[in-house]
Amino acid sequence: MLVFEKSRAGRGMSMLPACDVEIKKPSEKDARQKELHLPQMSENDLSRHYTELAKKSHGVNDGFYPLGSCTMKYNPKINEDMAALPGFTQIHPLQPEHSVQGCLEVLKKSEEYLCEITGMDGMTFQPAAGAHGEFTGLMLIKAYHESRGDEKRTKIIVPDSAHGTNPASAAMAGYKVVSIASAPDGGVDLEGLKAACGEDTAGLMLTNPNTVGLFDKNILKITEIVHECGGLCYYDGANLNAVMGTVRPGDMGFDVIHLNLHKTFSTPHGGGGPGSGPVGCKSMLLQFLPSYRVVEKEGALAMEKAEHSIGEMKEFYGNFLVVVKALTYLMTLGKEGIPEASQNAVLNANYMMNKLKDLYTMAYDEVCMHEFVMSLEDLKKKAGVSAMDIAKGLLDNGIHPPTMYFPLIVHEALMVEPTETESKEVLDHAIEVFRKLYNDALENPESLLQAPVTTPVTRMDEVEAARHPVLKYEFES
Fold first, then answer.
1. Which DSSP helix (H) or strand (E) runs through 143?
2. Which DSSP category does 95 fall into?
3. DSSP H helical segments within 30-76, as ranges?
4. What stretches of 245-350 adopt beta strand conformation (E)?
5. Which keywords annotate this record (predicted)?
6. Cα–Cα distance measured from residue 322 to residue 128, given in angstroms and rounded to the nearest whole number
7. Does domain 336-466 have CATH number 3.40.50.150?
């Protein structure tokens, strides 16, 4: 039941003291024409309502959550504790710089650490999330070409194995998107890239490792080809948790990168945010960065705006408390712990993939990075059980489904990301469940076509839900 359906007139949970100042009501034209709908409940009923909802949801604290390309991992609670300190929460972005030196140090130190990890020369924390960071990076590329009077560069190259937001961000920045198909090995087709590059190329957007979980072995050649035609190289760093501390995008030839602090660097991911998508760049792009960066002046920290800034991408300095969590994570793990985390992510993914590939068809049967993609196309032909059906079956076993039907270049795809925080015991249980579901598909396919049957909400009519969604509660007039 919804909270509105549990509402009973006259019930409440607190008594506010009488107002001790004069009450000012809005003018007639600005006043509500209908009474505001608010649920009326006791504190006891409301507490039980939200506890009931919590029991029906599934998160990383409940069980395995291998949502590919999203990094739904456990995040240490010390990071939350640091972000809750009054010295970080009880400040205002318009305070004088001398009164927030500790906060400025957080931004300065985070920039230094993340630039060291990515091989960049500077960074802005203003973008609110990944796609916002993509758009910011593309605006830097545009500003760079325009500053040189090179306005013929109107196209951005995006491989078909990139994150889905890449072409959308490029189009939003005013560019024409040129898609190139993947090579048989899952990487960028070099001949296709060469054919797409020209005097009208502004840049390349590359997700690496890509959405099939592979690190492109031709990465240095790719950036060389783009640079030779005068374009810049953008690195989608959403999958950086697979390579951080081992290789640096800046050393691969990339000029600009965005990071997902809410995926790689420990902020709970999902549920609407907050996120953080800082953008790092090489020195020739620093003059275009948005907002302010922290610099040292006369023995103190201060804010300084880039000379030819592209302008504000968000109010003030981004989601600051997310940066606090990321810095805590970085300082806790240290120089040795960062690469160990990424190596464990790769180890877990390869362990799970190799334990399943005798049954499930792997889209690319080679060493993967932090995630792998299975194709259930053969199983669907053989038993009539789809990737969606296997995903529904996982729900009955207490496991959140992996990403379904993405990337689009793999038919009947399931994209699995175990993350670095799961133990061998958890992975072994998940492997056992996957294998059981495969056998069920062959021996009793109807059981999967009906799944899930043990969840609070069982199998839904997803076509009806998509075509006729109920998006709001209708009150009685």
1. helix 130-147
2. S
3. 43-56
4. 256-259, 279-281, 292-297, 300-305
5. Oxidoreductase, Pyridoxal phosphate
6. 10
7. no
Question: Nearest CA to 241 among 263, 269, 219, 258?
Answer: 263
Give which of 362, 364, 360 is closest to 385, Cα–Cα: 360
For residue 141, with 0-12 CB atoms within 10 Å meaning exposed, 13-18 middle and 19 or more buried, which class applies?
Answer: buried
Q: Could you give the CA distance from residue 407 to residue 393 in angstroms, rounded to a whole number?
A: 21
Tokens 């840049």 belong to 203
DSSP letter, residue 228: H
Predicted confidence (pLDDT) at residue 270 exceeds the cutoff of 80: no
Q: Where are the domains of the chain?
A: 78-333, 336-466
pLDDT recorded at residue 269: 76
What the block records as the tokens of 175 is 């560019």
pTM: 0.91
List the one residue out of 158, 169, 105 whose CA is nearest residue 323.
105
Tens of pLDDT along 216-264?
A: 999 999 999 999 999 999 999 999 999 999 999 999 999 999 999 999 9
* 191 burial type by CB count under 10 A (0-12 exposed, 13-18 middle, 19+ buried): exposed
Distance CA 201, CA 176 (A): 10
Q: Considering the domain 78-333 in this protein, what is its CATH number? A: 3.40.640.10
